[in-house]
Design brief:
three-stranded antiparallel β-sheet, 275 residues
């Protein structure tokens, strides 16, 4: 056995040994379908699993497949997405469902290059979808996998780029079982963060998410939430309702609404707003 092969075997065994004893259970890991994986992977972008689980379960009940989702209204989609943040992701999922139904005969493509043509799907999300939905060994990076490779191969080093990590992720990939391997890596990464306080601070791509309270993101969420609940409302009434919900808001609500309109998250007609 070559030296590199031995190193690969030892590393994989270490990860799998941990996984066998500490495997996390999530609803999207059970009775796997491409649709469930697609929805869960988009929901999990910049959102903690604890928030995603109840929203995912409710979503699957309401929209069990691409066909049902494609036929839903924007109002229904954004209502179901409430609580996950980044409402543009909800619109992206909706648009993707329509594309899958209309152009791909209701079947999610297995090609990561094609998946990246869908709104809101970058190379890493495309890779994770291929690994988890189709068990294809596509190399990708997400925060927990990044933590594992930084901890195991770059401990104490600073400004490590993903470009340095990718060859190692590819080298140590279990090509026979990429789905389980990636789940195992992610679960080990969560453990490193919780128990050893490992972080991605030595990654060149590390950045701390800005505070939500008092941010424009909070105002954007409030606007969508109000319109979801009330329906059509005037500009003046919306500004008053946002002030009532967020009394300490310092941002220009009108400008935020205008940006939401540009992004097609809200619609404007006769000085009234609606989803």
């Amino acid at each position: 056995m070559k030296k590199d092969d031995r190193k690969i075997d030892i590393f994989q065994q270490k990860i799998y040994d941990f996984y066998k004893k500490n495997k996390r259970n999530f609803v999207w890991r059970e009775n796997i379908t491409p649709y469930k994986i697609f929805i869960s992977e988009v929901m999990l972008q910049q959102t903690q699993t604890a928030r995603v689980v109840p929203k995912f379960e409710a979503w699957i009940q309401k929209f069990p497949d691409f066909q049902t989702l494609a036929q839903a209204s924007q109002h229904e989609v954004l209502s179901a997405w409430q609580g996950l943040g980044y409402n543009r992701r909800g619109l992206a999922v909706h648009a993707s469902a329509k594309k899958i139904v209309q152009e791909f005969f209701k079947k999610l493509p297995e090609d990561p290059v094609i998946l990246q043509t869908f709104p809101g799907i970058g190379p890493n999300t495309a890779g994770s979808i291929c690994a988890f939905a189709f068990n294809i060994p596509v190399v990708f990076i997400e925060t927990n996998i990044r933590t594992v490779f930084l901890h195991e191969f770059f401990l104490g080093q600073a400004q490590v780029s993903d470009r340095e990590l990718l060859p190692l992720i590819e080298k140590y990939m279990d090509v026979q079982s990429p789905r389980e391997w990636c789940y195992a890596l992610m679960d080990y990464g969560v453990y490193l963060k919780k128990k050893l306080k490992a972080t991605n601070k030595n990654s060149k791509h590390y950045s701390r998410q800005s505070r939500f309270v008092g941010s424009k993101r909070q105002v954007r969420g409030a606007v969508v939430r109000i319109l979801t609940k009330i329906g059509k409302v005037s500009f003046d009434d919306l500004v008053a309702l946002v002030a009532q919900e967020l009394p300490k808001n310092q941002h220009d609500v009108v400008k935020i609404v205008e940006q939401l309109a540009v992004e097609k998250l809200v619609q404007v007609s006769d000085d009234h707003l609606f989803l």
